[in-house]
Structures are given as C-alpha cells and as structure tokens.
Records
---
Amino acid sequence: MDTASSRAQKAVANWIFIGIGMLLIQVVLGGITRLTGSGLSITEWDVVTGALPPLNQEQWLEKFHSYQQTPQYHYLNAAFDLADFKFIFFWEWLHRFWARLIGVVFIVGFVYLVSKRYLKKEMQKPLLILFLFGALQGAIGWIMVASGLTGDAVYVKPTRLALHFIFALGLICYAFWFGLQLRIPPSKMTVAPSLRKWTWWITGLLAIQLMFGALMAGHKAAIAAPTWPTINGSYIPDGMLRESPAFLNIVENKITIHFIHRGLAYLLLVLIVIYSIKLFRLSPVSDTFMKARRLPLILVLTQVLLGILSLLTSPGIVPNKWGVFEWMAQLHQVVGMLLLLSLVAMLYLVRKKGF
C-alpha cells in the first residue's frame, strides 16, 4: 500500500473509531438516563430547537409543566419540585444532545474525507448503512420514549428498551467491523474453521443474553430476586409460567427473565472458558491475535462478578438517587458491551480460510 493510500485509510479508520467511542459513551449515557429515571423528562422530540436546554425560568417552567402531564409524574414523581425536574431533565437532554453530536461528527468527518478524496468506492456502501442505521436508531429511541408517555405507564416499555439497546449494539458492532477492516491486515488473522464456528455461536448467545439483560433493566427486575446463587431460595423458582399466553413469560415475567438471564450467564461462562483454552492452544499467531484472545475470558469473569454484585446491592436502591447498585449495574452494562466487541474482534481475526 502506497503512502497516500495508507494515510487515507488511516484517516477513515480514525474517524470510524472516534464514532465508535462516541457511540459507546451514548449507550453509557442511556444507562445513566435509565438508572436515574430521567428518560421521560422531555416529552417531545425537537430535532433542531431541542438541542438547547431551557435558558430562562419561563422556559424551565414550561418544560416542567409538560412533564407534569405525564403518567410518570402523576403516579411516581408527584412530589418533584423544579430542582428535581432539572436533574432528570439534564440526563435525558445530554443523552439526546450527544446523539446529535454524533451526527455532526459523522457529517463533518464525511465532508472532510470527501474533500480530501480519502473515501474509496468500496467504503461508500458501509458508510451509507451506518448512516441509515444511526437514523433508524434515533427513530426507535423516540418510539421507546413515546411508549412511556401515555396511559398509566411510569416507564418506557421494556421490550422497546431492549430493542433500542440491541439496535445500538448492532450499530456499534457494524462500525467496529468496518474499522477492523481498515486497521487490521490479513497477515494478522488466523485460519481456524472450528474456532470460527465457536465464535459465531458464542457471539449469538451473548446477543440473546444482552437482550435479556435489557429486559431485566426495563422491568427493574433485579429487586424481584436479589439473592444469589438461588432465585429467592430456589434454583428453579415457582411462577415461571404464570403468564398466558406462555410466550409472555419470556418478556414480561420477571422471575422467568431472571432464570433465563442467569442460566445464559453460566452457560456463556463455561463456553468462553473452553473457547479460551482452544484459543491459547493455537500457534503460531500474530501479536494482535495474542492480545485479543485474552479479552473474552477476562471480560466474562468480570461481567459475572458485576452481575452478582448488582443483584446483591439492589435492595439498597433509593429512587432518583445514585448509589452502589447504580454503579454496579452501569459497569455491568459497559463490560457486557466490551465483551461483545471482544468477540466481534475474534470473529474478524479467526477465519474459515486464508485470503
């Protein structure tokens, strides 16, 4: 690769990885917004004018009045004063503002790279998909928020929260894969067909697990069974099939969601231990592969520990206050995302056949 082409590819890769970092921060902000109960504090979606927070007392009172019309205010936060509202408003506003900033960085970066003629023809399709994926994610975010503004809802629908989270992870993984294509040459990859199958299966299983983690968060289900290793004293608890039709137990029954989420965690732990042993037996491998293969095991062990601590600290939850549980839950989410990205990296590095 000549110097000019290498410089162009590096510039595009840097832009993509900056975007990935911003997307990860956006998911973290979404987690904080959820944990502080802030997600329904802004009752409309103004793409342009909503970029600025209220700038005077009259505007603050107008926003607070809009929030006072929501079910969440009437059923959960009726004791809120303006100061309380400003706190939850800040996190939802920051979450939306950061989303807008991601869009600005994407557009400005795109214009700059086009002007420098750094974008090759084969990059156009992935970038178009990223743009459309990002726009769709914004639409899903508003659909999610809207689900908590009507009827007797005090939070957004857990299924829509899960959908919003999974789409965010899909967007991040797609961008990460594109970035890896720009950064890592074929010489750094390893041919191991059987391990590639392992990587696919574990990645798919983790995606399902993350979806159930989002359902746990949406239902605020940690407090429903804050015990470990049992679920309220039983390994197979009663009441897992109380909903009708039966499918609803998977998305609405807190105890069933607990059981599945914990079971998948144990299964993933065992599979990743076995998988890691297989990875470490591969030789010779590149230095990039040697560094990357350590991460899934380290992250899954950390993730299991954080999950247990989240459960055990959940009885200490104080509404609208940030405490130990909130720290554990937020770190649990972050490590889950990093675990997914570590497996995506392994999926990229472990190939079915050589180039």
---
Amino acid sequence: MTDVKDRNGAEQKAAVLIEALPWLERFHGRTVVLKYGGNAMTNDALRRSFAQDVVFLRYAGLRPVVVHGGGPQISAQLDRLGMPSTFRAGLRVTTPETMDVVRMVLTGQVNREIVGLINEHGPFAVGISGEDANLLTARRVQAEVGGELIDIGEVGEVTEVDPGAVSALLADGRIPVISSVARGSGGGVLNVNADTAAAAIAVALRSAKLVLLTDVAGLYPRWEGTDAMSALHARPVSRLTVAELAALMPGLSDGMIPKMAACMTAVRGGVPRAHVLDGRLPHAILLEIFTDSGIGTMVIPDTPPGEGADHVSH
C-alpha cells in the first residue's frame, strides 16, 4: 500500500509540474536573456544551481542567452595586483591598465567557468565576448556625480548590437554566454556595464524576457525617516510600469540605478517584461518563469499589450 506521506509528496510534485505547463507553452521557442552577476557568481552552490536552471530552460524549449559581468572577480584580481577599485555612479573607473585586467578576467576566466558549468550537462554553452563579430559596439561615457561629469576611463555605453553571431548559435541549439566588453566606436575595447549590455542584447534579439540576477530581492519602496522596523518589514515592489519606475529613479542607490535603467531600456525597446531577481535564492530563474506568482520586481510597459491575457503579477 502506498504510504500517505509519499503519495502527498508525489501529488505536490505533480502540482508544481502542472503549474509550469502554461508557462512552458507560452515561452516555448522564445528567447530569454539572463544577466548573471552578484553573489550567485561567487557561491559554488548558487553557481551550480544557475547552470542547472539555464540547462533546464534549454531542455524545456526556451532559448536562453547568458550575459555576465564579473565585478567581484575583477575586484579580487585588482586587489591581488595592488591596483585600486574605484566606482562613480555605480560604474567602475577603468584605466587602460585596469581594462587589461577586466578583459582578462571577464573573457578568459569568468566566461570559461560559466561555459564549463553549463557544459557539465551537455554540449550547449559557447562562450563569446562582446567584441566577437562586433556583437557590441560602444562609445566612451562619463559619469555624472553631483551634477558634474567625471571621466571614468575606458567605460562605454552600447550604441550598436549586431546579434548575428548570437542568433546563429541559438539556431544551432547552443547557449551563448557573453562577456560584457565591447568594441569601441573609436577603436580599442571598452568595459560596459553587464546590465545595460544585457538590455541592449535583449532588445536586439526581440527577447520575451530580460532577467537580471542581483544581490537584493528586488526594488524596495522608499520609506520616510529612519524607522528600523519599517525598513525590516519592507517588501520589494512586485510590479511597476516604466513611467512609475522613471519617477523613482532619482532616489535610487548607485548600485540599483544601472539595473533599473536596464529594465527601462529593455521594455521601452520592445521586451515585454524585465525582471530583477534575488540571485542568492537557489533556482530563482525557474521560480520566476515557471510559477504563477513569480518573484522579484517586474517592469512592464505603461500600456501592456494583451493585458487581459497575461498573469496579474509575472
């Protein structure tokens, strides 16, 4: 006779699979761009769960594209070399010497590690750089701090995306893994923020979703005063429109600005949904894509197409 506990456990597993069915149908064959960064890149268990999630998406019929940074690894390597790590407006100040380290760490170390983890499950991942086949072209930018523009070196913003190489890999059933460096429009190589690079690639690929993994549970609402209890019980905003997010942007922290700006760029560029998820939560990607409630913060267009046909939250 089947044990009641075992039967209940089996029923719960079946319920989870059934809950995923409409989302499997909806996203089958669609491209999903995943920006991978933060603590999920440095914790071994989270690194492996991320790789499992990406392979699950591939087997489930989606077309995942991974775009990664490598801030902690770059900072660690700079520290080992006795070189300073300086940030302005959430962007790394990148001297020519620092750029050599950024390029080496992102393309030569981090990219290979991600490819290796994914390929433990099959011959899927192919590592490329934003430089390859002119995938990303960028122009140098300055950071605005206190109303003044400050030179931050070899740092760029994406001005052009040529997704041909990525599209070819997707058509071949591969998982592109892209490091966030770009060809400079004036020559050389530029360091580009991985969040903004992921947004530009998502727009160029007409992705169904942009998902940014970070070290917070989402975008938190502002609260007045210094009430520690209010801060403790604050919950991230589940859903907001581009216009609502634009109104909040001036009050965001330096670290959150590039992430939320990337969400705005993606949605304004035609990506139906952009999400900020807590990468410290194992299998956060699967929870977002294949469950009814979803997690994290979702940014949607001001007038979403097909509003009545979409899920109320995620």
